[in-house]
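Re-run with default settings, no changes from the original entry. Doing this only to confirm the output is reproducible before filing.
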Amino acid sequence: MTRIDRRALFASGATAALLAATGVSAAPKRGGRLKAALSGPLFDQAVAATVYENLTEIAADGTLRGELATDWVSDETAQRWRFSLRDGVTFHDGSAFAAPAVLDLPMNVQIVDEHTVEIVLDTPNPNLPYLLAHPGYEIQSATGVGSGLYQVQKLVEGRHFISSRVQDHWKENAGWFDSVEFVQFSADAIRSEALRDGLVDVADISVLDPYADPRDFQTLPGDAGTTHIATTTVSVPHTIGKTWPLDNLRMAERWWMG
């Protein structure tokens, strides 16, 4: 792919709005489009984390909290778990989230009532609520759409993704970007070049392009070291999730343009 092609690919994005925030400690404001250049596996995971929600979520500080589930309890064996489901959640196709949507999880799920399910395991697992926050355990409607903060506007599988923020989402105090755009480039050098040339705001690379000015970028580490680099025009909270790259794959929900 030529340089002209790469520039054209990102030309569809709206110019990021400048916010009043003067630093990462300032209150975020909504606006702009977040653009990211991602590798193949991370592209798919980031799309899923942007469009779908899980029963549970690992917060930026590493603590577990409910997402589509509000609370849960297990029996003394940690083999039978009961989850209470969040009321008032709507999928992007307009259907209401309820217990039948949880049946698609890759485990034995039993419906108790419209907003309660039980998960019965073959072997004890006291860490089940943490497992359900992992990629691969997203919840979707009968038509395959999600309930996340952003809904799909364009998706070319494995290549290009554009989404817009859902209005009146139950997470009213999150999701600061108007839209999010991901493009998949397998080569580290191309993702690095796209970040250097200002075509994207963040890329999952561990080393900055040698021709880039380091003063214009910030490295964002995971537990194993730098997992992605962003421009300084992107503001991130003081604490970001390190379980997975890109703030536990939730950069679209937690970051803002600043």
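Residues 3-52+148-257 form a domain with the D-Maltodextrin-Binding Protein; domain 2 fold (CATH 3.40.190.10). The chain has six helices and 15 strands.
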